[in-house]
Specification:
alpha/beta; Rossmann fold; 13-stranded mixed β-sheet; 8-stranded mixed β-sheet; 30% helix
């Protein structure tokens, strides 16, 4: 139990430190961003959600249409300087320092996306009173996503940039652990060439979310209690908001969201995995993804002109023009083709296959494919935007690592596994008998996935045989 609790603390530390760094890793604020924008007003007033003072900024109040901008973790309203300048001549623009940040009040409060959405609702009802365009970055993207799910009639169009949260916290912690292992590898590559390709990389990362089902305390429960927030998270808004966004389940907010949505991501974002953007694109009914090639996490400050161009086009295009950009799976076609990878590195499969067989295959990638079944032995496998349809077992794993993103399986048993690690995100299962049939020593984490129409967002450690 002591070892498990230490692992739990490590996961929480990874989530907090990486999210806290999110706003600090963006472009250095230019001096122009610290100057006042002519006509921009500031009003600090009491707010009823966190019972503190909130500072609200607005410009061009007489404009017919309004754009609301929601900043991310450890940031403030001025991060939107370039967007306010681009919008102010045509739109009424509102932004604010979220409670807990900037010049707004800070305290030992539950700074969750749901409570922040309630705060945004207070502001928009008071200052706007009609439907508006909503833009959010990082944690602000998670808040905007939650808001549009809670109050769908309020939001005309949605822009989500480098969204925080969404992935299950253990999956996210693993991805960040891998990031730091790769940083270590880049430093030591001269001494250990090919370190990043070694199987131990994934094994090390996977240890950070193993055996966590039996923890003595659920951090989500701890967030609800002021005294526990004070003890565990020091009653500080940054770690509280960081852990809250990382542990909230956005399954319904994603799948049921009918708001036309633009997703913007930085190609070099090391804070929020682009995997999240791909999930949002596939699983939100009216969404599309644009990647900025020279941006890291803070896309709106890294490439402001490109960001603004995409944002304005999304706001101003017709629904018909936007509909052509929405994601759709290709039509499933039966095939007799058999794909194989034996003792190879970074082999990619696309198109239609009867089956794919993998053995000692490192970094096998299946993307935009239609497959009858997959068998993997001692393999590291990534599956993305693909479909598996069979009357029997969809994927069989022996001693393998499997990451699946934004894909579908229709099968009797979706995955049969022995001594393997499975990370599933944005996945749809249609099964008869079992989602996972485990013969021992495997673990699986599910993020915003669905099984026969029911949400699945959880971690499961299979020390012994078992099924989900």
């Amino acid at each position: 139990m002591y070892k498990k609790f230490i692992l739990f603390l490590f996961v929480m530390l990874v989530l907090f430190l990486n999210n806290a760094q999110a706003e600090l890793t963006g472009a250095v604020q230019k001096s122009v961003e610290k100057t006042l924008i002519p006509g921009l007003s500031k009003n600090c007033e009491p707010e009823p959600v966190f019972n503190g003072q909130a500072c609200i900024y607005e410009i061009n109040k007489k404009a017919k249409e309004t754009v609301v901008l929601v900043h991310g973790l450890n940031a403030e309203a001025r991060r939107w300087h370039a967007q306010i300048v681009a919008l102010k001549d045509r739109y009424h623009v509102i932004s604010f320092d979220l409670p807990g940040f900037g010049q707004s009040s800070r305290g030992n409060e539950l700074y969750s996306p749901t409570n922040y959405a309630r705060f945004v609702r207070y502001v928009t009802k008071k200052y706007i009173g009609k439907p508006f365009y909503l833009v959010g970055h990082s944690m602000g993207g998670a808040i905007a996503l939650r808001y549009s799910a809670m109050y769908p009639a309020d939001v005309k169009r949605l822009v989500l940039a480098d969204v925080g949260g969404v992935l299950h916290q253990y999956s996210y912690a693993k991805s960040i652990a891998l990031k730091w292992f790769k940083v270590f590898q880049s430093i030591t590559n001269w001494a250990i060439p090919g370190f990043e390709d070694m199987p131990m990389m994934h094994e090390l990362a996977n240890t950070f979310f193993q055996n966590l089902d039996w923890l003595p305390i659920d951090v989500r429960d701890a967030l609800q209690v002021p005294e526990l927030r004070r003890i565990i998270l020091n009653g500080n808004s940054i770690p509280i908001a960081s852990v809250a966004v990382s542990t909230e389940d956005f399954s319904g907010a994603i799948r049921n969201n009918q708001t036309p949505t633009l997703i913007i991501w930085g190609a070099y974002d090391l804070v929020t995995p682009i995997r999240t953007g791909k999930i949002l694109q596939v699983r939100m009914p009216k969404a599309y993804l644009k990647v900025l090639s020279r941006s890291a996490h803070s896309t709106m400050t890294d490439q402001p002109e490109e960001f603004n161009k995409l944002m304005l086009a999304h706001i101003e295009q017709t629904d018909s023009e936007l509909s052509h950009q929405h994601w759709q799976f290709s039509l499933f076609e039966n095939s007799k083709r058999v794909g194989k990878c034996v003792n190879e590195l970074e082999k990619t499969f696309t198109g239609n296959y009867l089956r794919i067989e993998l053995e000692n295959c490192r970094k096998a990638i299946i993307k935009n494919a239609n497959i009858g079944l997959i068998v993997a032995k001692n393999t590291s496998l990534e599956i993305e935007t693909s479909q598996i349809i069979t009357e029997d077992i969809g994927i069989t794993l022996f001693d393998s690592n499997l990451d699946i993103t934004s894909s579908n399986i229709t099968a009797n048993i979706a995955i049969q596994t022995v001594r393997s690690y499975i990370d599933v995100a944005g996945f749809d299962f249609k099964i008869k008998t079992a989602t996972i049939n485990n013969f021992g020593q495997s673990s699986a984490v599910f993020s915003v996935s669905m099984v026969n129409g029911k949400p699945l967002h959880r971690y499961k450690d299979f020390t012994l045989e078992g099924q989900i």
